[in-house]
Amino acid sequence: MTKALVIARLTFREGLRKKLVLGVVLLSVVFAALYVWGFHLFVQDWRAMEARRAASGATTVLPYEVFASAMVLLGLWTVNFLAGIMTIFASVGTIASEIEQGTLHAIVPKPIRRWEIVLGKWLGYATMLVVYIGIMVAAVVVTARIVGGYAPPNVLQAYALIVLVALMLLSLTILGSTLFSTVANGVIVFMLYGMAITGGLVEQIGTALDNDVLVRIGVLSSLFVPSDSMWRLASYLVQPRIAVNFLGPTPFGTTVPPSSLAVYYSIGYAVVMLVLAMVRFQRRDL
Q1: Is 220:250 a contact under the CB 8 Å cutoff?
Q2: How far apart are CA 82 and CA 91, in angstroms?
Q3: Contact 158, 237 (CB under 8 A)
Q4: Neighbours of 60 (CB within 10 A)
């Protein structure tokens, strides 16, 4: 296990040096700046609208927290999406590229088990993702609190679920890296991620139209890759109930959150994918 932690530390440092990760970080900084500006404009428009309503004697149709919650939801959805993209493309060549380049030939003969290499790389990327998601979620929540004067509920639970989404994708990508080439793995996992998002949209449409077939299609896609179902639960928890009832099922949220069983399934999914990656790499010829 000590050797796995050494690999984790090296992987963390290597991940921070990757141009793709740096690109995602720069885009995240741009997003954060635009988000602060956008939230500021939203607050200004809301206050101006309320002033006009007060002058005309009209009453507020909906409370401020409904619209502020929508802004927070949009910000967290973007964080979830950026984290997913960074997870896939940062770890896509974790094993495959090093086999192709012959790097692992210098590591495998040393007194270190192959499963420790896989676990160490997983821990290194997982640490990077936990830190990144934490910073981005904090940026969204602090902006809402300072600029908008709004504090969303259940932030820690939502943060944990977004991290779980990233860890599932990480385990799946590392497993793919032990099975396919770097390019093929990137294409396959990205398509699966997109399929999960599409399945979630189909389920929301089915819920809005009361169509059981569309709902079942969404549920099946979430069983195959449960990343979007965990985002749906996070989006439900981070909104006040009045906002959930008003907004209804949307591309960003849901009115029917997954159960706690889905959370256990997602945790098990991440663990099983990681174990399969260890087993596969143990048996793979270099």
Answers
A1: no
A2: 14
A3: yes
A4: 11
